[in-house]
Amino acid sequence: MKGREESTLQKEGAQDPAHNGAVRERANGEEPFRSGYVGILGRPNVGKSTLMNQLLRYKLAITSPKPQTTRTRILGIKTLPGAQMIFVDTPGIHQAKGPFNEYMVKEALRSIKDVDLALLLVEADGSSKKDDRYIVEGLQQTRIPVLLVINKIDLVKKPSLLLLMDEYRRWFPFEALIPISALTGDGLEILEEEILKRLPPGPQYFPDDQITDITERFLASEVIREKVYHLCGEEIPYSVAVVVEEYQERTPPRPVYIRATLYVERESQKGIVIGAGGRMLKRIGKLAREDLEARIGRSVYLELWVKVEKDWSKDRKRFRRLGYR
Ligand SMILES: Nc1nc2c(ncn2[C@@H]2O[C@H](COP(=O)(O)OP(=O)(O)O)[C@@H](O)[C@H]2O)c(=O)[nH]1
Ligand SMILES: [Mg+2]
Q1: How many CB atoms lie within 10 A of CB 234?
Q2: Domain 16-197: which topology?
């Protein structure tokens, strides 16, 4: 991840420097303050990022109907008067093929090593069972308490859901089984309560107004990548890496200046991303700019370039250079 020195994203409104780095032991002098890292696990596309965004009530992580949208670990921080939940959104876990897929799975496994609680997200229609088995085997090696979160219940009927819950219950001593729809918000209050109950007493790790550990610069690259997922056909998204080369705040009313490069793996893909008469790249740029402007609350001047970095996803050294460390 680039640009760690830059400011991370914060909520709008009052800042409270007194809490910066400070440890707040108690919320009201009686109940201890509770805090913890909550890992969100599951195979690609089960709705992990959608869930984190809903819990934060902020669209932090990019999402798409295509698997493997999330490539790196992202923290989403939710601070309540007496507690702080730090969600860890992860790339999907599956039996990976190829160096870049392996990298993403490793990133997911590494980022949950130190969590206080794990949410295992599964598909309500049972379609993720095979990958879930694999993840459960991994969890059995750890002592992390796990909540089984059955997502997308808006798509299934109740009797089949109950059968599925019985099946999962036999696999692993889950702390609880919670059916939800990350999309409609159904079940999320219960889920939040179940999480809160299991947070250990602990310090407030992040100030009240901080919602993530990623920088605005990294977020910009993610937003651009999301538009590629939404606009380009099947194969392209997996071959695109976005690097923000320049991010200049500049004094308003001058727009924030962002220059980014979209790296693809082959010459033919470059043509597709640019599109006839540059139309595809223009659409990507327009959507990304509008999204960024809404997030930052300022006008943005976005400049996009497309370059070929031959077969970058097949070569560890190359994808490291593109920011995947
Ligand atoms: N119908 C339905 N779709 C969902 C739900 N949660 C997520 N999705 C969709 O599933 C797709 C993958 O979501 P995403 O959050 O990117 O999955 P991730 O790869 O696990 O992070 C997106 O198209 C979401 O809109 C849900 O509760 N119901
Ligand atoms: Mg995701």
Answers
A1: 7
A2: Rossmann fold (3.40.50)
- Is residue 214 within 8 Å of residue 74, measured between CB atoms? yes
Show the ligand 1 pocket: residues with CB < 6 angstroms.
Answer: 42, 44-50, 63-65, 69-70, 92, 151-152, 154-155, 181-183
Cα dihedral sign, 307-311-317-323: positive
Residue 293: Cβ-neighbour burial (10 angstroms; 0-12, 13-18, 19+): middle
Distance, CA 184 to ligand 1 centroid (Å)?
11
Q: What CATH number does the domain located at 215-321 have?
A: 3.30.300.20
Mutate to test the pocket of ligand 1, among 48, 51, 62, 63 (most ligand atoms within 8 A of CB): 63
- What pLDDT digit, counting tens, does each position of 268-306 carry? 999 999 999 999 999 999 999 999 999 889 999 999 999
- Say how many Å lie between the CA of residue 65 and the centre of ligand 1: 7
Query: What are the residue ranges spanned by the domains of the chain?
Result: 16-197, 215-321
> pTM of the entire structure?
0.86
